[in-house]
Amino acid sequence: MSASPRVVIIGAGIVGTNLADELASRGWTNITVVEQGPLELAGGSTSHAPGLVFQTNPSKTMTEFASYTVDKLLSLSADGVSCFNQLGGLELATTETRLQDLKRKLGYATSWGIDGRLIDADECEKHWPLLNSGALSDGRKVLGGLYVPSDGLASAARAVQLLISRTREAGVTYLGSTTVTGIAQWAGKVTGVETSSGVIPADIVVSCAGFWGRELGKLVGLKVPLLPLAHQYVKSTPVAELAGHNETPNGASKPILRYQDKDLYYREHGDRIGIGSYAHRPMPVDMDALPKIGADEMSEHRMPSRLDFTLEDFAPSWEDSQDLLPALHRAQIEDGFNGIFSFTPDGGPLMGESPDVEGFFVAEAVWVTHSAGVAKAMAELLIEGRPRTDLHGCELTRFEKVQTSDQYVSETSQQNFVEIYDVLHPLQPKESPRDLRVSPFNVRQKELGAFFLESAGWERPHWFEANADLLEELPAEWQAPERDPWSAMFSSPISAAEAWRTRTAVGLYDMTPLKRLSVTGPGAQALLHRLSTGNIAKKPGAVTYCLLLEHDGGIRSDVTVARLAEEDFQLGVNSNVDFDYLRVEARKQSAADPSQWAHVADITGSTCCIGLWGPLAREVIGKVSEDDLSNDGLKYFRTKEISVGGIPVTAMRLSYVGELGWELYTTAEYGLKLWDLLFEAGQEHGIIAAGRGAFNSMRLEKGYRLWGTDMTSEHHPYQSGLGFSIAKDKEGFVGCEALAARKEQPASRALRCLTVDDGTSVVLGKEPVYVNGEPAGYVTSAAYGYSVRKPIAYAWLPTGVGIGDSVEVEYFGKRIAATVTAEPLFDPGMERLRG
């Protein structure tokens, strides 16, 4: 491919034009942007977007996208007027629950480097004098708010026109009123874009088509899991109190305003007030029923993305708005419409390359708030091979197959619409759909009173009510302190008893949701050797913990690689993204050298796994297996085939909880019998079924990292405490050269273990950490350590912060003292693991 490949961007909205600009500014010039609507008013979501930009998000990545968007739009100007009016953002609380949520949200802002502060009701009224200063109709009143000075209003449509003008000067070609009819391909690669005006040759195609993205994906056989939904927005008639106050850019002088307790937001339009509502029923859009509007018929009030207003849906929100802003009692609804936006099953954008059609990329379900940041990341991905911002929560291929079905996408996306402003706990489970993916042990788990939470469609027990009686036997030193109501949600004291029994006897854990891949063929070793940091060229029976790296040395994922035979490997990976990465790389390797073919298969659903762990694990399995599972018979990080009560089992001497034991794998049809055999054999040894609550506590006590939480692609192994996973003297793996360079350059930040000084305060993650009174980092994972009798938190901190130093974690606006502590906290000599 030449230094400036032929790029076709589909969609000239705020994402597509920003991407063209980001590519052009980096030297790529052979770029064509195709738009089905007229360039002056394309008629997509950008054309009607209200433009409110609230930057703070629980996701660090999304906050970074929003902050970059703010900075870029501020710098984009004409005639002395920029495309961003930085008048601040104000989120109101009219309930105590919301006020506490704003305290947590301020914590996110601080963690991600956004300046904000909590203000009282009087200051809220100073920022928005139209606010009701008394009691609302239901007796509530404004209690306070979160004020972020750098938030504000984006002029999205104006920004698009300025970007088109700027990029045209840089050589970008724009084709308006041109419909995409197909994607030309050859040998699994894109070669062009078929349009109503002919074929445009292309090496890279990027779909930035917004809610049309799902339809474009179909042209290459790609499921793009988004749902177009209508969202109501109105403008009032003139409000007397605003007359003469907003002769400013964007027609606004007050902060953008959120009234999330009623699912509403507000902005000024000169002397009018704009109101957006998520309070109405979800309104999925039938793409086939969209109005067909010709280019000459398009206008601000008539475009495909602007559907007819349904007043009956907005009526309750109008009353709530008049309640909050009494001046609206003297106004009417002048203009209203149902505008179309894209929603996804988890609310995140969709970014990345199709795993099956090389050169076809997607940047969809992106709102104006994150548009320039997403475009920057996509440009980096195309030019440098990966973005500088971690994308694990945005990857196109992050969803499991069942999560891309039309039914799942529709239901979960509509639920995300309903819950968009709700106060949700980090562990809040979906109510529906549930029981999509269950292990063979599910029937026994339900009999034992399992409390399930859901992840990637899997039902995962977090504790078992059958173990409640153990609380009466639990020694005093194992009793966990009472938690505050927030951290206690989706938690149970029973987890303490399950951890105690695992540490002192034996526990049975369902590890089936761990994603498993089979890599086979004559090229399997070469593939894994090239992609991983470990020495996997060992004899069959070896298990290796290692990393998959990006080309710049960032951690793409962590994996376990078990060599079952010369050409047969089993991998434990983190997500569907890993599966697609490995199978794409295998396909490329096989194409380059057919003798080195390798087949990558997802075997998760056809297999199951039990973690049998604890000091008495050997006694339990010895009752149902005659195989030698002594230290000599199966060493730590080794695997072999055994028989358990006649069932063929692959036993791996691994433990994520830091106790003697094995991961026991078999095919799904044997799963229930395997559970029953082990559970019955363990009765005399005090065996219990245990859940993720105990599991998470014990893995933090051992200092085991959780990819995607403790480390991501923005971190390299040495700063993450994972230098041991890099095989000595190994060369040639992906990221090798960059990693060597990073090793020679001292990192500015490192992952540190903290213990909470008061012994009782449990945080949940993403809280800011203060050093010498200044915000300096943030928490990743946290839990109460039942074995070590204190709360634990891992955090990214400056490398100058050393063991024994005091820090503070901010939780609900309060500072909690903590100490940087040597790790691991439990069994640092590994005696228990090694038996």
CA distance, first residue to last residue: 55 Å
Average pLDDT taken over every residue: 96
Instruction: Give the C-alpha Rg.
Output: 28 Å
Strand order of the largest sheet: 8-9-7-17-18-19-16-21-20
Structural description of this entry:
Helix 1 links the parallel strand 1 (7-10) and strand 2 (31-34). It contains 20 helices and 42 strands. The radius of gyration is 28 Å and the shape is globular. The strands form 9 sheets. Strands 8-9-7-17-18-19-16-21-20 form a 9-stranded mixed beta sheet, with helices on both faces. The protein has a 6-stranded mixed beta sheet with strand order 11-2-1-15-23-22. By secondary structure, it is an alpha+beta fold.
Secondary structure topology:
Layout: E1 7-10, H1 14-25, E2 31-34, H2 45-48, E3 52-53, H3 60-75, E4 77-78, E5 81-82, E6 84-85, E7 89-93, H4 96-111, E8 117-120, H5 121-127, E9 144-148, E10 152-154, H6 156-169, E11 173-175, E12 180-186, E13 189-195, E14 198-201, E15 204-207, H7 213-218, E16 227-236, E17 256-259, E18 264-269, E19 272-277, E20 306-307, H8 311-324, E21 333-343, E22 350-353, E23 360-364, H9 371-384, H10 406-418, H11 442-447, E24 450-455, E25 458-464, H12 485-488, H13 494-504, E26 507-510, E27 515-520, H14 524-531, E28 543-549, E29 555-565, E30 568-573, H15 576-592, E31 599-602, E32 607-613, H16 617-622, E33 639-644, E34 647-652, E35 661-667, H17 671-681, E36 688-689, H18 692-701, H19 736-744, E37 749-756, E38 768-771, E39 774-785, E40 790-798, E41 806-811, E42 814-821, H20 831-834
Parallel strand pairs: 1-2, 1-15, 2-11, 7-17, 15-23, 26-36
Antiparallel strand pairs: 3-10, 4-5, 6-10, 7-9, 8-9, 12-13, 13-14, 16-19, 16-21, 17-18, 18-19, 20-21, 22-23, 24-25, 26-32, 27-30, 27-31, 28-29, 29-30, 32-35, 33-34, 34-35, 37-40, 37-42, 38-39, 38-41, 39-40, 41-42
Helix pairs in contact: 1-6, 1-9, 3-9, 13-18
